[in-house]
Amino acid sequence: MKRKLTANELEGWLDNVRPFARDGKVADYIPVLGRQDPEELAVAIYFMNGEVVHAGQSDTCFTLQSISKVIALALALLDNGEEYVFNRVGMEPSGDPFHSIYRLEQHRPSKPLNPMINAGALVVSHMIHGETPEEKVGRLLSLIHDMTADHSIVYNKEVASSEFETAFLNRALLFYMKQHKVVTGSVEETLDAYTKQCSIEVNVKHLARIGAIFANEGKDLETGRRILPRHLARICKTFMVTCGMYDASGSFAIKVGIPAKSGVSGAVLGSVNGFGGIGVYGPSLDEKGNSVVGLKLLEILSNRYDLSIF
Ligand code: DON
Fold first, then answer.
1. Which one of 25, 67, 264 would you pick to mutate in the ligand 1 pocket, going by the greatest count of ligand atoms within 8 A of its CB?
2. 246 given a catalytic annotation
3. DSSP 55
4. Is-catalytic flag, 66?
5. Spatial strand order in the sheet of 276-281
6. Minimum-distance ligand 1 atom for the alpha carbon of 265
7. Is the ipTM of this complex over 0.95?
C-alpha cells in the first residue's frame, strides 16, 4: 500500500487539472445545467478501510444525470430479475453517442444495445416497479439513501422540469420503442420518471460512498449490511467498464482502466475492488459528454495507485 493520501495532496492534483476545464464546455442542452460554473471542481475518495479524503468544493451538489443509470439498473434487476431485464435491453457497448437513435433501427427486435445509453436507460426506468413516476423515483431514492447513508437526498425539481420540457430526443427514443413494443404505456410518464431520476442531487462524498459499496461487492463498508446482491454489483461494474463512458469507453479503459460512469452534469463515479469508491465533479465536458477535468484526475489517481484492473 502506498503512503496515506492527504487532502493537501489531493488539492494539489486539483490545481494541476483545473486549467483543463477551459478545453471543454458545460452541457446546455438541458437549459438549467447551462448555469453550472465550468471552473467548479471537487473530488472524494472512500477507501476500503472506511477512510474518506476529499478536496475542492466537495459539499457542492450536482445532479446524477447518467450516473443514475447504474443505480436504476441495479433496482430494475432487483425488481424483475436478469432474464426479464436482459430480454428488453442488451449487454453490448454501442460505440455511438449516448443519445443516438441509429442502432434501434438496425436490430430486430429493436431493443437498445445496453442500459447506459439513453434508449436503454429509458427502458430500465420503465421496468422499475411503481404505479406512478413519483413511486418509481421514490424507490430509487430509497436505494440511494441506503447507499449514501443520507436520507435527505432528493431530486432537483427545477432540473427535472427543465429536462422534461426539452427532452425531444428522449421522447423520440421512447416513441420509437413504443412502436416496436419494447416499452408500453405512457411515454410522458416514463420520461417523467427518467428525468426525475437524472435530477437526483448528490455531492462527491455521496458518489464515493456509492462507488465503495459497488467495490465492496454490494455491502456497506461501515455497517457490513448487504445493500445489493454480489452478482448485481458485478453486473453494474461490468457495464461501467464496457459502456460507462459511452464512445470513449475504450480510450478510458486504456488510460484509466477502472469501472466508471459519467453524467452530463460533469460528475464521474468510480469503483475499484480492493481500493474503494471515487467521486469527481467538474462540469466542463468534452465532445463525448464526459468531464474533461474528471477524466484527467482519474488518470492521475489511476497512475498513483496503479488502479487499472487490466
Ligand atoms: O438523458 C439525458 O440526456 C440526460 N438526462 C443524461 C445524459 C448523460 O448524463 C450523458 N452522460 N454523459
1. 264
2. yes
3. E
4. yes
5. 52-56, 42-47, 276-281, 267-272, 260-262
6. 9
7. yes
How many Å apart are CA 22 and CA 119, to the nearest integer? 30
Which amino acid, 299? E
Question: What is the pLDDT of the chain when averaged over all its residues?
Answer: 96
| Angle (CA) 241 292 162, round 5° | 90
Angle at the Cα of 126 (from 123 to 130), degrees rounded to 5? 160
Residue 199 Cβ inside 6 Å of ligand 1? The answer reads no
73 vs 127: CA distance, rounded Å? 9
* Cell (9 digits) for 89: 435491453
DSSP conformation class of 65:
G
Q: How many CA atoms lie within 13 A of 282 on its CB side?
A: 30
Q: For residue range 183-198, what is the model confidence (pLDDT) as tens digits?
A: 999 999 999 999 999 9
Atom of ligand 1 nearest to the CA of 199: 5
Give residue 153's identity as a one-letter amino acid code: I
Cell of 76: 430494475
Going by alpha carbons, the residue nearest to atom 7 of ligand 1 is 66
Nine cell digits for residue 208: 464515493
* Euclidean distance between CA atoms 131 and 305, whole angstroms: 45
Domains observed in the chain: 66-198 (1.10.1500.10)
Element (H, E) at 71: helix 68-80
- 170 annotated to a ligand binding site: yes
HEC string of 188-256? HHHHHHHHHHHCEEECHHHHHHHHHHHHCCCECCCCCCECCCHHHHHHHHHHHHHHCCHHHHHHHHHHC
User: Do residues 212 and 276 make contact, with C-beta atoms less than 8 angstroms apart?
Assistant: yes
| Per-residue pLDDT tens digits for 161-172 | 999 999 999 999
Rounded Cα gap, residues 59 and 47, in angstroms:
18
Q: Which position has the grid cell 495507485?
A: 305
